[in-house]
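Bug #77: duplicate submission created two jobs. Keeping one. Sequence:
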Amino acid sequence: MEKRDLLYTGKAKSVYATDDADHVVILYRNDTSAFDGKRIEQLDRKGMVNNRFNAFIMDKLSAAGIATHHEKLLSPTESLVKRLEMIPVECVVRNFAAGSLVRRLGVTEGQALNPPTFELFLKNDALGDPMVNVSHCATFGWATADQLAAMQTLTLKINTVLSELFDAAGMLLVDFKLEFGLFHGEIVLGDEFSPDGCRLWDKDTKKKLDKDRFRQGLGGVIEAYEEVAARLGVIIE
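Kept job's structure:
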């Protein structure tokens, strides 16, 4: 597979075309951003850690029968993935109250949510990724009702698989966001899953092991990511 022109540069990843129209290469960079890109820093090893962490999680999801865009690792910081027609709606599951849910509803951080909440957000940095509903998505053509139903079903299945995985490693999967796309008409998970896009706490101490360490100036960001990887048995070289 030949890597070709740069197609897109995001806050932490770059996407390159290949000589196969159905596949692209994702480069995981060391850039770390928060607050819709208003704060950006370079953190050594981050691209490598997230690339390998994501590959591990995608393999676990594939083994559970969940279609993902991930194909294989190409290098410490690069992966080959399916080229999707992305749906501009983020799916968010919350198992415990944290972040914007606490600010919006005034609930206590750490409160267990049973059943977990499921929310939709429009992927639009300029607008701050506003919360939307099924009616908005249908009216503005962002996604169909059938697509959203499939995305919700997959997101909740992923929540079950990963909550059990992290629980066995002594961690709480507090919340996470996912994006989906279409590959030859099939709904496919088209997002990275790493401590950048979820909240993870130590089950006993509630120590934060995710990007909130960066957002809140707690330090030890990559060390926390590597701790999560080590608990799961992810090999980081």
